[in-house]
Design a protein that fits this description.
- By secondary structure, the chain is of the alpha/beta class.
- 36% of the residues lie in helices and 18% in strands.
- The chain contains 16 helices and 14 strands.
- A hairpin with an 8-residue loop joins strand 10 and strand 11.
- Helix 3 crosses helix 7.
Length: 402
């Protein structure tokens, strides 16, 4: 492929060997491609659909013509062919070592750690507070991006290989669990969303993004909610506060629920347009303007907008008072200073979705046999980083026993 130095290796948190499995794919050897791919990536069916593909931005071809090798689509093709052709079968040769490990949280980090430890011979029990496994894969990412049957297929395989899943199990006492198991892994993600303490926050119609996303995924799975419980954009003007991927998912979901309009605002400046970011040159990740398929379905997007107040009548949201701002360099260094620029205005909205990220969890001092991984350890990040952290933590657990 004439890569020269394959920077995709460097960019991928999992260290995926993209040139190797792409070469096998090119030669039509799907089984070898599958073996090479899964030597570093335990769940290519997830990353092949929702990873932002850090490897593609670092691809040598992206440096010269901005047409990188389509690694994400390729790994999705490889893993789907592997399932179709029967390359993937439950392992029956696992030799148990007599050690028991508990994993708290069945998101991508916990699943990756559980998978590796199970293959090493540990007896793994996964405790999940929700009714099914997947974490934000299941309850945060809409079905139009990741069909939940893809998650169910993998969970059945993990169960067939000996991993035990306990659902509806919220663990409050870590120390007690640590005394019942030889090791405990905490992979509970970042459950606390960043809030916006503006006047009127208590009005009916102001919700966290996951209030909408998780409920919609549960509805599609067959769960029923009362009219009072239901968070829906049907027939409403919707305002999404936050310009990241979660905000984009809210836009796509609002369209599918039949909203009247969608506006997305972001307090930070508009990212640079085009494929190159002067502040983060190749092979670094370019912080450029990202337009998703949800945006293309229809959305008014605005930047440098500060939220001042939620407005309502009879306890129900009717609009949001916002103001255009600017950012000035801080003479003392550090974070730029926000200054007012435009006059306050009102954006009509009957539904506001707060998609401003998540707060990094704080942990007490745990016993020596307790480990923390994924977003629970590092703060909100990418699925591929969560999986990489899960694999690294599995190695730490193995080293602890040695």
């Amino acid at each position: 492929m004439d890569c020269g130095v394959p920077f995709c290796h460097w960019a991928c948190p999992l260290g995926n060997k993209a040139p190797e499995w792409n070469d096998a794919l090119f030669k039509g050897d799907f089984e070898l491609a599958y073996q090479l791919l899964t030597s570093t990536n335990p769940f290519p069916e997830f990353t092949g659909r929702i990873c932002p593909a850090l490897c593609e931005k670092a691809c040598v071809l992206n440096r010269f013509n901005h047409e990188p090798t389509t690694n994400r689509e390729d790994e999705c093709a490889i893993i789907e062919m592997a399932f179709q052709e029967g390359f993937i079968q439950p392992r029956t040769d696992i030799q148990r070592n007599g050690k028991k490990v508990a994993v708290i949280g069945a998101g991508p980090a916990g699943l990756a750690a559980a998978n590796d430890l199970n293959h090493m011979g540990y007896s793994v029990t996964v405790f999940e507070k929700n009714e099914a496994a997947g974490g934000l894969l299941r309850y945060g990412i809409p079905n139009f991006k990741l069909n939940k049957a893809i998650i169910d297929r993998r969970i059945k395989l993990l169960e067939a290989e000996g991993i035990t899943f306990n659902y509806g199990a919220a663990i409050d006492n870590i120390s007690s669990l640590a005394s019942d198991f030889d090791a405990v892994i905490i992979s509970t993600g970042t459950p606390t969303a960043r809030d916006l303490k503006a006047p009127g926050r208590e009005l009916k119609g102001v919700h966290f993004a996951l209030d909408l996303l998780s409920q919609q995924n549960r509805v599609l799975a067959g769960m029923e909610f009362s009219k009072e419980e239901r968070v829906t954009a049907k027939g409403k003007d919707v305002l999404v506060i936050g310009g990241g991927d979660t905000g984009s998912d809210c836009i796509g979901t609002a369209h599918r629920q039949g909203c009247k309009s969608v506006t997305q605002i972001e307090i930070m400046p508009k990212p640079v347009e085009g494929p190159e970011d002067p502040q983060n040159p190749w092979p670094n990740w370019p912080r450029t303007l990202k337009t998703t398929s949800s945006h293309e379905e229809g959305c008014t997007r605005r930047w440098n907008i500060n939220t001042l107040e939620f407005l309502g009548e009879n306890g129900k949201l009717t609009g949001v008072k916002v103001q255009e701002i600017d950012w000035k360099p801080n003479p003392e260094g550090g974070r730029p200073i926000m200054v007012e620029k435009g006059k306050p205005e009102i954006i009509k909205a009957e539904l506001v979705l707060l998609a401003m990220g998540f707060l990094k969890p704080e942990h007490p001092q745990y016993p020596d046999n307790v480990f923390v991984c994924g977003d629970a350890a590092n703060g909100a990040s990418l699925v591929v980083r969560a999986m990489a952290s899960g694999r690294q933590t599995a190695q730490k657990v193995a080293a602890y026993f040695k």
